[in-house]
tRNA-2-methylthio-N(6)-dimethylallyladenosine synthase (Acidicapsa dinghuensis), 439 residues
Amino acid sequence: MATGKTFYIETFGCQMNAHDSEKVIGTLEQQGYAQVQDEAEADLLVYNTCSIRDKAEQKVFHRLNDYKKFYKSGKRFAVIGCVAQQEGERIFEKAPYVSLVAGSASYRKLPEMIARLEAGESRITGLDDRQTDETFETEFTSRQNPYRGYITIIEGCDKFCAYCVVPYTRGKERSRGSDSVLEEAKRIADLGYTEIQLLGQNVNSYKDSSGKLSFAELLAAVGQVPGIRRVRFTTSHPRDFTKDIVEAIDAYDTLCDHVHLPVQSGSSRVLRAMAREYTRDWYLERIAWMKSARRKISITTDIIVGFPGETPAEFEETVELLNEVQYDGVFGFKYSPRPNTPALVMIDSISEAEKSLRLQVLLDRQREIQRVNYDKHLGETLEVMVEGMNPTRGQVTGRSSQNKPVNFTTASPIAPAPGSYARVKVTKTFPNSLAGEAV
Ligand code: 5AD
Ligand code: SF4
């Protein structure tokens, strides 16, 4: 490998992956590597991959195929993340110029793997999967987001929903100790961050490894770290969603008034087939807790349409659920069969065209709901955290505590800095954003 030691990293997928990359970047920098933004300049190219939906593994191989020429010029490739864990050593067969394959449960061994790579070894693997009890804690995190500090509090997943690849790619569920989480929160606050996002595949399944705090108590504690103004958490699982989470949001204004609570389907029959471990009524009870809170809590969700065997009437139950909950946002997905998952043996009975149709119906309905929901903000004054500028429209962009995008103009000729706060009067609403003026 050339001297000077540079790396390029590209990240696909969820916030967990984005934050893993921050930790991988920090670890590589600790090993003497400098990050570059151009593949052509890098000695080491790292792809942090996602395999949650679609034919992700094929996309990765397709992508890697373009890079044979780079290998010849001495560059080395590492494939990490969910596709790496899922495909394992098959990656070396299909893409022989890849030198390192590692899943997220092995990242704490990265320094050792990098040393072997530098020693000229090829076919280095870190494929710990469900065996490991360790979490990837490191103080070398290189935070790439200038205004939001991510903290992983729980890794992996033990839920085994029938459609989901995560339990196989990210290993078994393991939580950090609350002391270490709080220390990291304080470190982030000292760096000047005012917003923290707690991360976990099922963030609210958190079980303090030191046995001190419940998830709701941890939320409250992070919300009281001096300097922290906003605490977000994602993603919550309905099965482990307890009332004290709502009570904590009510008690501490620093906890953002937004909960992302994926429902996946509005039909109890489909939920059972998905092995979600709750019914429609059970889910709606959690929604009722949030709706009766003192603060108005914004609720968003994930939905899968076209799960094997979903009838038109069952799909209709999902649309009905949207009407009932009146979500502020819905991420809708067409079911896609994933390797290793229990649903793989179920016949993927619904045609692609029908899945697309259902998704369209769902998203059209949701757009109307959001139009009404967002319109309710007209005339309100909201606290907005600045994220950037949209120069073509001459607007500052940011987010409300409820995580709604707010675009606004200011009287001042100097654009406010990312991470600063503004009070914005809402003068116009859209189904996905708000617009206004700084006051
Ligand atoms: N097919 C379609 N959507 C899926 N999701 C997870 N697995 C699949 C799959 N096999 C969706 C779920 C989850 C979100 C992150 O991705 O809605 O909440
Ligand atoms: Fe996947 Fe279900 Fe675990 Fe979420 S809870 S990561 S959907 S298995």
